[in-house]
Specification:
This protein is α/β, with parallel strands linked by helices. The protein is built from 20 helices and 15 strands. The strands form four sheets. The protein has a five-stranded parallel β-sheet with strand order 3-2-1-4-15. It has a five-stranded parallel β-sheet with strand order 6-13-7-8-9. The chain has a three-stranded antiparallel β-sheet with strand order 10-11-12, with no helix packed on it.
Length: 502
């Protein structure tokens, strides 16, 4: 694949495209608005809220891009997507080449276009921010490219474009077996890059579905399962093998992987261990973690879930926390029939860490926000079941080291709020696999790696994503996977080169 041909700003077609419209003509165009299904309907189903751009919307939005000579958007992308190159291809309606450009750096464009916090990353570096205008809708355009090409391939029964690159890896690496532990975004990104280089890659997943947090942690109204499955199908076309129901460290040991001929291991087991607040009543029936709640929703059939004691019709649900996972949980509760769904957050409105669109969607769907409140106790009824929560009113004090104002208790300001279900979403802890060799671990249970190479203290084990960072974003996890693939491949290349010199 000629990367220079795909990404060069000096290509004749890009120079001609830049001259087609003046800067003023481009910058006066309004940012595209993503079509959405109405809130009154979407709370009755799991249909995806954002409906994607039409061709004409995408082309017009791509025209806003100024094709900067030093693009700030690329500096904010953790996987270093060639953003202006793919956007300019959208502007000239060459959507297949736009996907080729994205495929140089990412294996999950349809996912990243939906769930990445673009407003804090690529779009934050857009030149339009300096003009006090809305940034180019990079995430919307990435999603459009991935979705358009996927639908065209289905309609035409055309082989996936990625599959054409299956055998382009170096023949020196053919037959070198690499194991990936975990099929979340970091493991998938690593596997894709290693497969493109020619390695024999196998992903081991402990659960019965592949995708990790993309499947069990994100509801379908934000990220449909068929989108994730289509991205995974691309990796199968690259030759990546998938093994489900395989809990490395429990059903399959490190030594067994070695006996099976795996020469390198990438650990991407995520951070799914729940974190608790340590307050009275947390063990009551009716108090659960976001991880348990979302797994029940996402990996079990809704009819089965509805027959559980967890049906939420005419129930009051509180979600503790205000990150993206908390928004997913509270919006899911509305779809499960909760008559009252609340976000309880100890800081103020301006400190809410979730994506702005997620917060807006939650409000539109009838979610109540109890900001500057913090739970201090959960109360049981006469049958020992959750009936209420006691909330401490808070106010914002002086800023801490991060620059955020610290929430401080208002003495004596305690409220009791009736509730039938509490979903605790105040962070997650790493899930280190069992029976690894003696690798360095942090006190929090994270695998300690060299940040440049993602290599652990054991030479054949690399790690990335939430098992290294703690709970973070999909795109940061993918960036770790790509960095690990590059450094592991270079290590094998050095071994092969040195061996050939002997």
């Amino acid at each position: 694949m000629d990367n220079e041909r795909l990404t060069s700003r000096d290509a004749e077609w890009r120079e001609e495209l830049r001259k087609r419209y003046t800067t003023k003509e481009r910058t006066t165009l309004p940012r595209v608005v993503m079509p959405e299904i109405p809130a009154s309907y979407r709370i009755t189903c799991n249909d995806e809220v954002n409906q994607g751009l039409s061709i004409e919307q995408a082309v017009l939005e791509a025209r806003r891009c100024l094709d900067c000579p030093d693009p700030g958007c690329m500096k904010g992308c953790p996987v270093s997507n060639f953003i202006p190159a793919f956007i300019k291809n959208v502007e000239r309606r060459n959507f297949s080449e736009a996907l080729e450009v994205l495929n140089l750096t990412t294996v999950l464009p349809a996912v990243c276009g939906r769930v990445c916090p673009q407003e804090k990353q690529c779009e934050a570096g857009c030149i339009y921010n300096k003009m006090k205008k809305p940034a180019v809708a990079i995430g919307h355009l990435e999603r459009f490219v991935a979705d358009f090409n996927r639908e065209m391939e289905r309609a035409e029964a055309h082989p996936d474009a990625v599959s054409e690159r299956r055998n382009e890896g170096s023949p020196f690496f053919a037959g070198i077996k690499i194991a990936v532990v975990g099929s979340g975004p970091s493991g998938l990104a690593f596997a894709g890059d290693m497969a493109k280089r020619g390695y024999d890659v196998t992903i081991f997943e402990a659960l019965h579905q592949f995708g990790g947090v993309l499947k069990y942690g994100i509801p379908e109204f934000c990220l449909p399962n068929d989108v994730v499955d289509a991205e995974i199908a691309k990796l199968r076309n690259l030759g990546v093998k998938f093994v489900k129901d395989s809990f490395v460290g429990h059903t399959l040991s490190y030594h067994e992987l070695q006996e099976q001929g795996f020469k390198g291991i990438y650990v991407a087991t995520g951070a799914g261990k729940p974190r608790f607040m340590g307050i009275p009543g947390e063990n009551l029936p009716g108090v659960m973690t976001a991880n348990e709640y979302l797994i029940r929703l996402n990996l079990l059939d809704n009819e089965i879930y509805g027959q559980n004691t967890m049906t939420l019709r005419r129930k009051r649900v509180a979600v503790i926390g205000a990150g993206n996972t908390a928004m997913d949980a509270v919006r899911a509760a509305r779809r499960m029939g909760a008559e009252k769904a609340m976000i309880v957050y100890r800081r103020g409105e301006d400190e809410i860490p979730a994506r702005a669109d997620e917060v807006r969607h939650a409000r539109e769907e009838g979610v109540e926000f109890l900001t500057l409140h913090n739970p201090v106790e959960y109360l049981a009824d006469e049958n020992g079941l959750l009936r209420a929560m006691r909330l401490q009113r808070m106010e914002l004090g002086e800023p801490d080291e991060s620059g955020r104002r610290v929430p401080v208790e208002i003495p004596g300001a305690i409220e009791e709020v009736e509730v039938d279900l509490v979903v605790v979403c105040v962070g997650f802890l790493p899930n280190p696999p069992m029976s690894l060799p003696a690798i360095d671990m942090s006190r929090q249970g994270k695998i300690v790696v060299d940040c440049a190479s993602m290599q652990s203290s054991s030479p054949d084990i690399y790690a990335g994503g939430d098992i290294v960072r703690g709970a973070a974003t999909v795109i940061l996890a993918m960036g770790d996977g790509r960095r690990a693939a590059k450094s592991m491949s270079e290590a094998f290349e050095n071994i092969i080169r040195n061996t050939s010199l002997v």
